[in-house]
Amino acid sequence: MSFLKEIQRRRTFGIISHPDAGKTTLTEKLLLFGGAIQEAGAVKSNKIKKGATSDFMEIERQRGISVATSVLAFEYNGIKVNILDTPGHKDFAEDTFRTLTAVDSVIVVIDVAKGVEEQTEKLVEVCRMRNIPMIVFINKLDREGKDAFDLLDEVEQKLGLSVTPLSFPIGMGYDFKGIYNIWEKNINLFSGDSRKNIEETINVSNLGSNELDTLIGKESADNLRDNLELVDGVYPKFDKENYLNGNLQPVFFGSALNNFGVRELLDCFVEIAPKPRPKESEERLIKPDEEKFTGFVFKIHANMDPNHRDRLAFIKIVSGKFERNKPYLHVRNNKKMKFSSPNAFFAEKKEIVDISYPGDIVGLHDTGNFKIGDTLTEGEQINYRGIPSFSPEHFRYINNADPLKSKQLYKGIDQLMDEGVAQLFTLELNGRKVIGTVGALQYEVIQYRLEHEYGAKCTYENLNVFKACWVDPKGSQSEEYKEFVRVKQRFLAKDKQNQLVFLADSSFSLQMTQQKYPNIKFHFTSEFN
Ligand code: G4P
After folding, report:
1. Total structural domains in the chain?
2. Atom of ligand 1 nearest to the CA of 18
């Protein structure tokens, strides 16, 4: 197959949702359709189940699963689909944000009874900022839930989306009869009462005909006609360009558990979802069909086996072909590297692969050379952007609990930060190290991994920080800037990139500082150039 055809047949996306909305179940059903797995229950949930075992054992269990589910690839109707896994737990939201830099589109799963939840709001906001095309799947229609129109309103208001339904439910919960597929103009009915069987698809070319009344009963048929009339009058017509630009989000209804509405979603997805998209680097826009290979690291996974301290760096291929044993430039280190066993992913298996194409993910064995965000090329000096750090929510001093192991401790901290587990700040005043995280769970992860992978022990001490604000270095020669650095020294730190960060201890002190130094710019993410 030609290079161009290989690019055009790839769809790389992520499924995002609040925990429990049905992401794992939907993923599994998509893999079943692709023939990549044979039975339900094969995809392990990477959810952290609280309370079942001690937290860190649970985290280790989750890490074991998450390498297997990092990329789930399958073929469907000649299309190569790559699903990038995103952790659902809110303490790992940073991992999800990073994964979103490697997807070309997303599917948002919403629970029909719970509606739009907190985690969905945050993730969709990131997708909106990046104009990532989104399809919404409203799940669990076999249960009683919110009215379809109320839910569509909620999605528009809370998520700031502009939706257009491409399917519409006929009843819900106990009365759930099936789904009218606006996209394909047919009806899918549950067969029998069990609600467990694969549907029967019936073409309905004329909604006004009596045939519809015979199929679902007069009352349901009239309701459906009214609802579809309303859909037609209220929502914009589906327009692929608007969807691809991130301005319009098609909505599907269904029940992942009962495999209902999933095929319709997949059929529409492979037809409309974007093929690999061009990506901005600091220097220029890179197109997938450029001949020369470029890619970037969006995730690093440490090996579970402490005896082999190698890690797997996940690279998204942006342009050109990635070939085994070919030398590539690691731009940040200005070093040529060759990879003799790059891994490609297929369902839950990984295998060594000779050639990969734009849209694909390869896993490269790494002994500590890679950091999240690193760029690989055939020689060109470009740097992909788009993996900013947000201000952490929690801050703690990290102390060495075993003075004989300080080398191991600092190496461990260094590598865990490269993996993106948390952010490290070094105080200007006394050089003390502060770990910032999105969730409290990360402190346990770090402590556990430092001990088991590096043989180092640490303790934590709370530090009262409201927000980390990156200080714009522009104007650093001015008197105002110098005074700020002098007066606020106690609150200043450097991040791992040596950027100056102001650790404000309250929202009030941040405001006062901004007022006192009006010419200094404070940024809430690490990427502001
Ligand atoms: P997540 O990855 O988004 O966190 O959700 P997951 O797929 O694990 O689904 C969460 C729960 O919701 C599971 O039940 C799952 O079976 C159920 N579920 C998913 N889709 C549907 C649906 O269409 N209808 C109904 N009624 N339930 C659905 P659980 O009891 O937590 O887990 P399990 O014991 O069934 O695995």
Report:
1. 3
2. 3
